[in-house]
Amino acid sequence: MFVTALIALLEVYFSSISLLSRGFILNGGSVLLVLLQLYFGSQTISKKQVLLIFISFAVLMVTSIKLVSDARDLIFQLKPVTPATSEGSQEISKRNLREVMVSLLIDRWVGLEGTMSAVGYQGNREAIFKEIYSENMSTGTSLYDREVAKSIYTVTATENSQFVSLPGFIGWISLLDNSSLILFSALALGVFCNLIEFFIMNLNGNVFMTALFGQVLAYRVSHFGYLPHQSYKLLAGIFLVAVGIFFAQIIMEQIYGRFTNETGEVA
User: Fold this and answer.
1) Of the four, 117, 131, 188, 257, which is 20 to 30 A from 164 by CA?
2) Torsion of CA 17, 145, 184, 202, to 10 degrees
3) How many CB atoms are located within 10 Å of the residue 166 CB?
4) What pTM was estimated for this model as a whole?
5) pLDDT tens digits for range 121-177
6) What does 221-257 look like in DSSP terms, one character per residue?
């Protein structure tokens, strides 16, 4: 189990760097949760091994954040690149790393940053809400980043790059600054998503398939805010795939039934 956990952390580490993502703590954190469950549950892993994995996690997280931050700065020119000629350059680098680590404690919690940005927005809330809702896909920086989040990436809108902040459903609806609307919208969305899961479960009778579609819906809700008016495409895709699997099961059952009737064999 120790070797498996270490390999899993390395996979997350290299994947995060290759994607220029600083979300190592989210994906790698799931490995730690499994380890803790094993340690306090079945005791199939020792305290020393758990400690080594936690140390490895910390080292990999810090190095991945540093490498990805430097790579982003270099590729997208977020900061001016200056040669390290002074003796204090190392201290500046350490301070920058600490600042990045502290900011990520907030930035990596999906929805929190978006909600804070929406609550602090000082412009015409209804107008920007309608503009974000009707925004079309394009390269450069999203409208939410430019007008609400005031993202650092607003200075890097290039032809071949796209920068998007995802406020989540609560953050997006918070732009209207109406507590009652936020509450009832969240409740309605929850009921709607549960009805979709109920439909899929009754259509296919497959718990795994239902959980998979539920995860897709949950991901969309938590990362809501970019091109919200095109959410119907995701819902249509879920419906078509679920119905397609349903008819595929019927066809396979018919084929299997004919085969068993012809051969006289029963599996």
Assistant:
1) 188
2) -40
3) 18
4) 0.62
5) 888 888 888 888 888 877 667 778 778 877 766 555 455 667 777 788 888 888 888
6) HHTTTSSGGGHHHHHHHHHHHHHHHHHHHHHHHHHHH
